[in-house]
Amino acid sequence: MSSSEFQSVSAETLRAWDNEHVWHPFTPMSAYVQEHSPIIVSGEGFDLIDEAGRRYLDGISSLWCNVHGHSVPEIDAAVREQLGKVAHTTLLGLSSEPSIRLARGLVQRAPSGLSKVFFSDSGATTVEVALKMAYQYHRQKPDGPEDRDTFLCVGNAYHGDTLGTVSVGGIELFHRCYKHLLFPTIVCPSPVATRVPQGQTRETWLQFCFDEVARLMKENHQRLAGFVMEPIVQGAAGILVHPHGFLRHVRALCTQYDVPLIADEVAVGFGRTGAMFACEQESVSPDFMCLAKGISGGYLPVAATLTTERIFNAFLGEPWQGRTFFHGHTYTGNALGCAAGLASLELFEKNRVLENVAACSQLVREKLSPLWQHPHVLEIRQQGLMIGIEMVRDRETQEPFDTLLRLGHQVTLAARRRGVIIRPLGDVVVLMPAPGMPAALVGRLCDVAIECIEEVTKSVA
Ligand SMILES: *Cc1c(COP(=O)(O)O)cnc(C)c1O
């Protein structure tokens, strides 16, 4: 829309049209229409600017995908330059320069062994692709085909909202309605000791989780097409951070039993945990690595499933053999998105983004430490710049607040009044500053979060 067209419509009209036509994702719409949420018209650095010219700090990287800020000159220029050539052409049996270059850029930075790149357009599609590839791989592998028909996944996992990814996911609230549409899976407990079953301590529970995944692998490996997990941090479950060593443990079991490991790095990839990819935190190379969200710097819907030569080779053969991977999305490897992705990769090195994440995550740790004493804060979970602050009515008994209070949402509204955009997961206040956000802004984000948690918990205490 040109700015003149935009100005010819008042903010009030836009809001009316929004309420009339736009169905927002993951949003209770009856409450939404009452709330007069900002209508974002532009972005500058780490600020978002609404229809009334109000500025907000983007405290959740525009839902976990922004990396270097908004209107970044280098990425804008790369997209414009590509736009001067062509916006989109298909990858089905044809190629394009930006997709080739981005594939190479990703492979050069990925854990070793991941040399094949299958493009798609969202986090959910990268995981769907990995599931279907892993499934088909066993049917076609040259060292003896097998019909492996299920996946091992982790409790409370989130891998997207398509039916395949909901099948390997486990978030009750999002998924229970669809359970009859899903394929069966085997689930190991999430290795997190925030709440442990009766009779267990932190240590015995975590040991049980390690043992349980070993038992499930031993008993089921002949039917397992793959093990799918979010490495290091389970984002949507409430920023649950796995104990060090769990990922390596899973990798070792996958190797022992020859079960492909599918690492969903959609949320954790591109610097957010402190390494370029979370798998590097435990020197793990998965068999599949799913990348989306941050891959284009948060600009455009590009995504990629990386895999190994070994998996790829099982799909080779004469066309009549039918070993082809029959899967694709129309906008796969979109040229503008790939150009943005390449520019973003270059900025990681130019701006020393990983060093910024290290410094800022230390700052967050210090800034938020007083909250550990807060009577309504159960726990602060943090890995790099992924932060979850869990609020409860009673810290001792871990009794949650009444969900009808929507306390996490109240904190979001309080933050908005202070010019900061955040979005919670239930009563977990999530802070997800962009990996490139300067320390001063990260500090402000923490200060506002603390103020809002105090204000909102006081109002119901
Ligand atoms: C967001 C997310 C997805 C889904 O990505 P979409 O682009 O929204 O489909 C998948 N896995 C994880 C871990 C995510 O955080």
The CATH superfamily of the largest domain is identified as Type I PLP-dependent aspartate aminotransferase-like (Major domain)
Q: How many separate helices?
A: 16
Counted up, domains total 2
Which ligands, by name, code or SMILES, are bound?
pyridoxal-5'-phosphate
Which characteristics define this entry?
single chain; 461 residues; alpha/beta; Aspartate Aminotransferase, domain 1; Aspartate Aminotransferase, domain 2; 2 domains; seven-stranded mixed sheet; four-stranded mixed sheet; 16 helices; 16 strands; 39% helix; globular; binds pyridoxal-5'-phosphate
Describe this structure in words.
The chain is of the alpha/beta class. It has 2 domains: 38-68 and 352-460, Aspartate Aminotransferase, domain 1 (Alpha-Beta Complex), CATH 3.90.1150; 76-350, Aspartate Aminotransferase, domain 2 (3-Layer(aba) Sandwich), CATH 3.40.640. The chain contains 16 helices and 16 strands. The strands form 4 sheets. Strands 4-12-11-10-7-5-6 form a 7-stranded mixed β-sheet, sandwiched between helices. The chain has a 4-stranded mixed β-sheet with strand order 1-2-3-15. Strands 13-14-16 form a 3-stranded antiparallel β-sheet. A hairpin with a 2-residue loop joins strand 1 and strand 2 (47-50). The longest helix has 22 residues, at 439-460. It is globular. The termini are far apart.
Task: Briefly characterize the structure.
The protein has helices spanning 3-7, 11-21, 29-34, 61-64, 73-83, 97-109, 123-140, 163-167, 172-175, 202-220, 246-257, 309-313, 335-350, 353-368, 407-417, 439-460; strands at residues 40-44, 47-50, 55-58, 114-120, 150-154, 186-188, 224-229, 233-234, 240-241, 261-264, 288-291, 303-308, 377-383, 386-391, 420-421, 428-431. With 461 residues, the protein is an alpha/beta fold.
